[in-house]
Structure formats: C-alpha cells, structure tokens
Design goal:
heterodimer, A: mainly beta, 12 strands, B: mainly beta, seven-stranded mixed β-sheet, four-stranded antiparallel β-sheet, globular
C-alpha cells in the first residue's frame, strides 16, 4: 500500500527566509502525482503545487518549488521569501495514476513564520 | 474563481442521530470525494463518486455512511446513526479529471455529543 511520510511535525522560519519541508512516499507504481496542500487556521485545504511523476523537471509556483527525487521517493517543498501568510499546516499528498481516485495524505507539518 | 461550497460549517448532533452533510462541487467537475480529518490527525479518504455511483471507498466508509447526488449540483454525505468517533472535519472535494488536483471545500466540523 502507498504511504506518505512527513517527518517534521513542526517547523519555524523567519520572515523573508527560506524553509524546506520534507516528504517521502512509498509506492510500487511508476505513474503517479504528488501534491502539496496548505491548510491555514481557517481549515480550508488549498493546493500549493503539483508534480507529475513522469516529469523530471521540478514544479515551481512563484515562491514555492519542489525538489522531486523519484529514485529516492522524496518530494520536498521549498518556500522562498517566507511571508506571515505562509503560516499553516502543510500536507504532502500522493495520487496513484490509473483506476484509483484517492489522495493519500501525510501527517502534516505545522509551519510557523516568525516576524 | 469557482469554489466547492459546504454546508453547514459546523454541525452538532446527538449520538445515534442521522446527519447529512452537503456539498456543491464546482459545476463542470465530474469526480467528487469526501475526506475526513479527526482533530490533530491526517486527512483520510472516505469515498469517491463518479457517473452517479461510488467508484472507490475506504474501510472507514461502512454501512453507516452513504453518498448521493440528488440533483445536478448537490453531493451529500449521510451518516445514519452517528457515533462519538464520527466527530471530525469532513471535506468535500471535486475535480474535472481524476488526475487533476482536487479542489476542496472549507469543510464541515461535525461534533457528536
């Protein structure tokens, strides 16, 4: 069964600095998708970034980028120039290609941004 | 930008009562999902729905749970006889294609007393 592991329950970063959140996953599939979702205190789940496993190029979305290492099954999120509004719970999620529909989430990393 | 909307935002129910959580997915989306998040825990998949039928469900989604798309816009989750352990945040999500990102609603916080 596929699993997603986030080994950092909490992280802290100074405003304007860079922080990297870790995620590893376990799968025997070759076709899959990876996502980072942000959940601020308002509780809404917001998509941050998406990576297709068949793409070697790391996804980038403004200040957010990923380091996707397929062989190592690692998918870390880098947040550059951190802002106070980045404070939230961040979830890494896996979606297998093919017939299944379900997202498998990690346990989350709570990011605090210090002014 | 279109959003997934969920009502109510908070539902308080006595144990053993039936509860219906409502969702309006984004209008051109075809795949619909329910997830739940027990306080302090990770988000867990409950069920996916496509073409007016359940396409996948987890072991959590037992006979107490059911889903329905009663009309062209609403997608509901019913819990027939609620238990204390059903207390959680329930998220609805939708996507136009199952390989596209799922868009989540704000969630319904269900509290069972």
């Amino acid at each position: 069964a596929q699993t997603v592991t986030q080994s950092q329950p909490e992280m802290s970063v100074q405003e304007a600095e860079t922080v990297t959140l870790s995620c590893t996953y376990d799968t025997s599939e070759s076709d899959y998708y990876l996502f980072w979702y942000k959940q601020p205190p308002s509780r809404q789940m917001i998509l941050v970034i998406r990576q297709e496993a068949y793409k070697q190029q790391n996804a980038t979305e403004n200040r957010f980028s990923v380091n996707f290492q397929k062989a190592a099954k690692s998918f870390s999120l880098k947040i550059s120039d951190s802002q106070l509004g980045d404070a939230a719970m961040y979830f890494c999620a896996y979606l297998a290609g093919g017939a299944t529909n379900k997202l498998i989430f990690g346990t989350g990393t709570l990011l605090a941004v210090q002014p | 930008e279109p959003e997934v909307t969920q009502t109510p935002s908070h539902q308080v129910t006595q144990m053993g009562q039936e509860v219906i959580l409502r969702c309006v997915p984004i209008s051109n989306h075809l795949y619909f999902y329910w997830y739940r998040q027990i306080l302090g825990q990770k988000v867990e998949f409950l069920v996916s729905f496509y073409n007016n039928e359940i396409s996948e469900k987890s072991e959590i989604f037992d006979d107490q749970f059911s889903v329905e798309r009663p009309d062209g816009s609403n997608f509901t989750l019913k819990i027939r006889s609620t238990k204390l352990e059903d207390s959680a945040m329930y998220f609805c999500a939708s996507t136009p294609d199952r390989n596209q990102p799922q868009h989540f609603g704000d969630g319904t916080r269900l509290s069972i007393l």
